[in-house]
């Protein structure tokens, strides 16, 4: 079974930030759900602050 | 090419297909050809008219040959054709072309629980229907329903089971199911005129030659076509009768219930499940539907992106027999033309590797979509020029300057960047466009007379993967306010999947720019196809809006912050002093 995770993305064209499914090994063309631009930056998940 | 020839355990030259072996064989298995509706022996002929028409021994079903547990087939065979010592054979052939014709698989509708396939005996697939109505089938052509072996009088066909359904991940049309159902209703009307046939559909796609005529004949023969796909099927456990609930969208009646003796699920087709192995062997790419992608949908519809490989049939897209035969003919002609050419002309745009500069890291071999770079650990990489298609992904990946991409060298492209931005760079939108799609998209915008800002300056590369980090950084160093890297959409990449390297590189560049204090939004990435003149114009407009927002200070900062750092020169390692000298 492929690993599915939610990852944060940012549209570099309109600045819209959103979460999207990422399936390990999947090869998909990404576009912004708001402006349809392909300038999609995969943001690194923010580390949780130490307790 | 190495081919595994599987063992048959029956000598082809000796077997005369008398069938004595099958008569005495005690082992029985479901007959795959009859869709499991009848059985076969462990020694069997796969299907009628098989070529060669000879028996084969299924070792998974056979009681075993090591030690021989039964051996009845060998005892009864007068020709002594049974050979339990037979083994798989590896055959090596030198080939000049390969035609991929691996066919298809059929969708398994078990997951669509609302139709009750495998729960209800009288819900069958179109493939099972095919066997039941066939004179060579398990019932010798006597059409009976599985629950009670009685002839069904009211039969319903449900279309698009596993096709045109994004919910189950199969959004494409399977192409053949509509006409297959039309043919089945005509067969039923011909064989059993007293049957009532119902077809539940969302569209009937009868677009081939004479297909519309066939569809009309089916309607004239009494088949009732109801537009709407059933939401539920219920079975009467005593009679096996099925009640189908459907919303008829062509009448004002709304919800309808039909009592049927049998339901046939017109199942869609899916790409062959073992296609990934072939894709990996021949470096083929796939569309989002999972079918193999052709080199060009209009100009090279039977060619694979890998040279010398051609497609025939379903492996490329769903198609009927006629189209498959046409494609097979075209593929064999293309292969024949290649084999008879004697000499092959290749594009001059290929990579060459300087062995002096190669660091033997192997990155170039990893990114080459064609497997055109030979590399072994601790060995200098070499390019197989006949296989290189000239995308330039290797040249952009090599940070040691060891790879020269003929006609699109680093020096040539950097010179273009510098020349373009030599005057008034702050007034320009700098664009890298791939030859096949984005550049052609710009042409399309032009010939369509679509208006867009005139500030863009385009540098063409064969593929967006040719655009190296250094080229983008050089544009910023030369004062470009914004830079756009554009290429083909994923499904259209002319170099299999080279543009995935572009994505990785742009992601890296965004991080790099941010680290250097340059707004990453100044670098954009877009996929623009040759037909998307509108999108090209729209993106140019958006880039212009971004350009206006970039301040002179930002441009000046980028010039400084992105200056190439001087490479640290490692001090030469001292040679170890010889033991004798040391003691002396």
List the main descriptive attributes of the protein structure presented here.
heterodimer, A: 51 residues, mainly beta, 0% helix, flat, B: 584 residues, alpha/beta, four-stranded parallel sheet, 16 helices
Summarize the structure.
The complex is a heterodimer of chains A (51) and B (584). Chain A is mainly beta and 51 residues long.
Give the SSE map.
The complex is a heterodimer of chains A (51) and B (584).
Chain A: E1 4-11, E2 17-23, E3 40-42
Antiparallel strand pairs in A: 1-2, 1-3
Chain B: E1 2-5, H1 20-24, E2 28-30, E3 39-41, E4 43-44, E5 56-57, H2 72-76, E6 89-92, E7 98-100, E8 104-106, E9 123-125, H3 126-133, E10 154-161, H4 177-191, E11 196-201, H5 211-220, E12 224-227, E13 232-235, E14 242-248, E15 254-260, E16 262-267, E17 269-271, H6 275-282, E18 309-311, H7 321-339, E19 351-353, H8 363-367, E20 373-374, E21 382-383, H9 393-397, E22 403-405, H10 410-420, E23 429-434, H11 438-447, E24 456-461, H12 469-477, E25 482-487, H13 499-515, E26 523-527, H14 533-549, H15 552-561, H16 579-583
Parallel strand pairs in B: 7-18, 9-16, 10-11, 10-16, 11-12, 23-24, 23-25, 25-26
Antiparallel strand pairs in B: 1-6, 2-3, 4-5, 8-17, 13-14, 14-15, 19-22, 20-21
What does this structure look like?
The complex is a heterodimer of chains A (51) and B (584). Chain A has strands spanning 4-11, 17-23, 40-42. Chain A is an all-beta fold and 51 residues long. In chain A, a hairpin with a 5-residue loop joins β1 (4-11) and β2 (17-23). The radius of gyration of chain A is 12 Å and the shape is flat. The model of chain A has no long low-confidence stretch (mean pLDDT 86). In chain B, α4 packs across α5, α10 (410-420) packs parallel to α12 (469-477) and α11 crosses α14 (533-549). In chain B, 38% of the residues are buried. In chain B, the strands form ten sheets. A five-stranded parallel sheet of chain B has the order 9-16-10-11-12. In chain B, strands 24-23-25-26 form a four-stranded parallel sheet, with helices on both faces. The longest helix of chain B is centred in the middle third of the chain and has 19 residues, at 321-339. The A-B interface holds A 12-13, 15, 27-29, 37-42 and B 288, 489-491, 497, 500, 507, 510, 520-521, 523-527, 539, 542.
């Amino acid at each position: 079974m492929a690993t599915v995770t939610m990852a944060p993305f940012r549209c570099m064209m309109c600045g819209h930030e959103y979460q999207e499914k990422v399936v390990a090994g999947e090869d998909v063309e990404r576009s912004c759900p708001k402006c349809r631009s392909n300038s999609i930056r995969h943001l690194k998940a923010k580390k949780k602050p130490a307790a | 090419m190495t081919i595994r020839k599987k063992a048959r355990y029956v000598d082809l030259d000796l077997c005369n297909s008398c069938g004595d072996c099958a008569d005495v064989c005690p082992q029985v298995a479901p007959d795959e050809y009859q869709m499991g509706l009848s059985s076969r022996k462990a020694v069997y002929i796969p299907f009628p008219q098989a070529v060669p028409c000879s028996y084969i021994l299924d070792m998974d079903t056979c009681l075993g040959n090591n030690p021989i547990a039964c051996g009845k087939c060998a005892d009864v065979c007068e020709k002594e054709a049974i050979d339990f010592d037979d083994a798989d054979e590896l055959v090596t052939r030198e080939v000049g072309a390969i035609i991929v014709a691996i066919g298809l698989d059929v969708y398994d509708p078990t997951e669509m629980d609302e139709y009750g396939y495998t729960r209800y005996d009288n819900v069958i697939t179109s493939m099972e229907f095919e066997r039941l109505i066939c004179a060579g089938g398990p019932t010798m052509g006597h059409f009976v329903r599985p629950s009670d072996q009685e002839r069904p009088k009211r039969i319903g066909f449900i279309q698009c089971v596993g096709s045109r359904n994004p919910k189950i991940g199969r959004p494409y049309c399977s192409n053949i199911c509509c006409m297959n159902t039309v043919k089945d209703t005509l067969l039923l009307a011909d064989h059993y005129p007293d049957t009532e046939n119902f077809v539940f559909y969302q569209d009937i796609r009868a677009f081939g030659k004479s297909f519309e005529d066939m569809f009309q004949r089916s309607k004239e023969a009494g088949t009732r076509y109801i537009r709407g796909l059933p939401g539920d099927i219920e079975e009467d456990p005593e009679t096996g009768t099925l009640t189908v609930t459907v919303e008829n969208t062509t009448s004002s009646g709304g919800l309808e219930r039909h009592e049927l003796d049998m339901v046939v699920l017109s199942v869609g087709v899916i790409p062959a499940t073992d296609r990934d192995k072939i894709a990996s062997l021949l470096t083929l790419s796939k569309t989002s539907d999972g079918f193999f992608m052709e080199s060009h949908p209009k100009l090279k519809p039977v060619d694979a992106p890998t040279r010398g490989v051609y497609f025939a049939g379903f492996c490329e897209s769903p198609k009927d027999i006629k189209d498959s035969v046409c494609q097979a003919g075209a593929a064999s002609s293309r292969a024949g033309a290649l084999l008879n050419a004697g000499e092959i002309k290749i594009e001059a745009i290929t990579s060459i590797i300087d062995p002096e500069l190669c660091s033997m890291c192997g990155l170039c071999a990893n990114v080459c979509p064609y497997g055109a770079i030979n590399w072994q650990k601790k060995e200098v990489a070499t390019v197989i020029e006949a296989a290189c298609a000239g995308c330039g992904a290797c040249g952009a990946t090599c940070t040691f300057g060891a790879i020269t991409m003929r006609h699109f060298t680093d020096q040539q492209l950097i010179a273009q960047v510098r020349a373009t931005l030599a005057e008034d760079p702050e007034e320009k939108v700098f664009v890298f466009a791939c030859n096949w799609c984005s550049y052609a998209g710009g042409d399309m915008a032009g010939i369509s007379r679509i208006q867009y800002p005139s500030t863009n300056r385009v540098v063409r590369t064969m593929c967006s993967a040719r655009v190296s980090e250094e080229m983008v950084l050089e544009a910023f160093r030369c004062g470009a306010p914004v830079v756009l890297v554009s290429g083909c959409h994923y499904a259209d990449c002319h170099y299999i999947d080279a543009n995935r390297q572009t994505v990785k590189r742009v992601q890296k560049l965004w991080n790099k720019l941010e680290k250097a204090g340059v707004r990453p939004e100044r670098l954009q990435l877009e996929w623009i196809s040759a037909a998307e003149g509108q999108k090209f114009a729209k993106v140019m407009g958006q880039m212009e809006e971004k350009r206006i927002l970039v301040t002179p200070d930002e441009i000046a900062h980028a010039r400084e912050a992105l200056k190439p750092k001087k490479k640290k020169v490692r001090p030469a390692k001292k040679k170890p002093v010889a033991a004798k000298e040391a003691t002396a």
